[in-house]
Amino acid sequence: MTSIALSAHIGGIGLIGPGLPDWRGARGVLSGERPYCPAPTVLPPVEALPAAERRRTGATVRLALAVAQQAVNDAGADARTLATVFASSGGDGAICHEICATLASEDRQLSPTRFHNSVHNAAAGYWGIAMKATASSTALCAFDGSFGAGLIEAMTLAAVDGEPALLVAYETGYPEPLREKRPLPDAFGVALLVDPHPSPRPRITVTLTDAEADRMPQPPLEALRAAIPAARSLPLLKLLARGGNGTATLDYLERRIQVEVSGCP
Amino acid sequence: MTPLALTHFTATSCIGRGLTETLHSLLVGRSGLTPCAFETVRLETHIGEVPGVDGVSLPPGLARFDSRNNRLALLGLSQDGFIEAVSACAERLGPRRVGLYLGTSTSGMLETEIAYRRRDATGALPARFDYAATHNPYSLATFTQRVLGIEGPSAVICTACSSSAKAFASARRMIEAGLIDAAVVGGVDSLCLTTLYGFHSLQLVSRNPCRPFDAARDGISIGEAAAFALLERPSGAPGTILLTGIGESSDAYHMSSPHPEGLGAQAAMRQALGTAALAPQDIDYVNLHGTGTPSNDSAESRAVSAVFGPGIAGSSTKGATGHTLGAAGALEAVLCALALRHGFAPGGVNTTETDPTVGFEYLRENRRRPLARVLSNSFGFGGSNCSLVLQRAD
């Protein structure tokens, strides 16, 4: 059976993480030109949502929408027509905690807004509302392999269906007592717009491999990579930040994903 | 799209364990909805509870995955020789060439809800509570992969009530890309307090068994189900059930209400017809999302009329099964496969007086007639829409 090469151009990038305020600011750090200074993740307000909707969103939706917006801006793309893939290892931890605490109490009356915000695809829904984006939108989970699963989903949308696809991978931390069971040190989000159409931007080709995943040379960035599923993207971001060709091997599930970057000037 | 064959499939819900019981319930018009006596829930409502889930034992090596959701998954996988069929497929193609794409909305959330009641004096969760293996959505995939002995790429789709319809879309792209040669697709969603109290808080739950498309409909009945299909490239055998069209869209309208004209739903149905290279009049029956809330059914009614016109016949099977949320897409795809195989369009049970504003033929009784092509709708919170076209190979 012939295989379709899973190839597409990286049309735009978005990034927010601890000490990584945005893609532009993080480039020099990831490429090794500037030192990494760890600092708590700062989530910007979501300007794209109407005020009423903005008040209802929690940290997870804010993070996802902020990195998605960065990538769309970086690409100069029209968000209304983009297919989207939202990948996260869990829903919003704070909302999950509040729901479970309420259900364990005498009065089990849940907040309706909290309930509809608890769905795993909340960020996808709010993105659609904010951008009037009516194309296909998926939200998926593969626990610690969620970035890889999202990348493959976005690449098949681009390569098989011939559509540009916006991958948004994001995680926020859980409050106690869930945090003890699922320790995620801080919020981290990354967005990649993968576009099958001809472009001067770098091109990536994705294959499955049994090779080991790349590690980050800076110990604190390697600690982030190992601790947060969305940060498993860091070796690819490092390669893209350097602006050169090469390969990055990323954690996925039983196997790893090899990403070959080409077409860099 | 290149058609795919559902070479094996199975379903377990409140209307039956496996295909024989499920088919019988459909043919006699039996609803599985009963007054809610689930866990510690004190709500006046009806639910579609699968009997015997608590009595399912997980294999010794998989004990850490013990949750209501994974028990229901195992109960579902154990019907109709499904495990054996997938094992044979994995042996033929190689376990790495068989992918797994499942949908759920709450996975094992119930285990976390119970763990919160058992917090100790310091507020800590019980030591034996295992978040990754019981609550996390992907626990369903890890558990299912181990039961089936497959090792290909996998993901759990969590787009609320469209989840397991969209699992077919992800699997289709993976097979078409050549990353896998076959995929197990499906959905498993089980009863928990979050959905029962959550839908209640939104005033979307009926006190009575739900009555989709009834003039007096007043909300959903929450159900649970495990439904699976093995998707492979077709062999060309006549009578095979084929997946020939998929449409996916977003409403971009509201988090928990559909677009009133069902614009997103229309887009999904039109795209599904387009990918199947079919015209609306080629479809013999539409399995409606039909949850039974006033606004959902009204939006879907307008959307179906806009796409198909007044001549189409459709029904919702949720009066029988309840709304099985993340499992609904896969469950209803399997019900459609049964309808195609056995030549009948299932009538929507519980509905006694069809909403007079419905502009197409809403079936309240079974119609015995060979069907060639059917379409199934699944729509979810966040405005996530997915339509599937299934047909019988000539």
Question: Can you characterise this structure?
Answer:
The complex is a heterodimer of chains A (265) and B (394). By secondary structure, chain A is α+β, with helices and mostly antiparallel strands. Helices cover 35% and strands 21% of the residues of chain A. Chain A has one domain (6-201): Peroxisomal Thiolase, Chain A, domain 1 (3-Layer(aba) Sandwich). Chain A is built from ten helices and eight strands. In chain A, helix 3 (59-75) crosses helix 6. The two termini of chain B are 18 Å apart. Chain B has one domain (4-392): Thiolase/Chalcone synthase (Peroxisomal Thiolase, Chain A, domain 1, 3-Layer(aba) Sandwich), CATH 3.40.47.10. In chain B, helix 2 packs parallel to helix 6 (139-148) and helix 7 packs across helix 12 (328-342). The model of chain B has no long low-confidence stretch (mean pLDDT 97). Chains A and B meet through helix 4, helix 5, helix 6, strand 3 and helix 7 of A and helix 4, helix 6, strand 6, helix 7 and helix 8 of B.
CATH architectural label of chain B: 3-Layer(aba) Sandwich
Oligomer: heterodimer
Considering residues with a beta carbon less than 8 A from a beta carbon on another chain, report the largest interface and each chain's count.
A-B, 66 and 67 residues
Q: Please name the CATH topology of chain B.
A: Peroxisomal Thiolase, Chain A, domain 1
Helix content of chain B: 25-40%
Remind me, CATH topology of chain A?
A: Peroxisomal Thiolase, Chain A, domain 1
Rounded to the nearest angstrom, the radius of gyration of chain B is: 19 Å
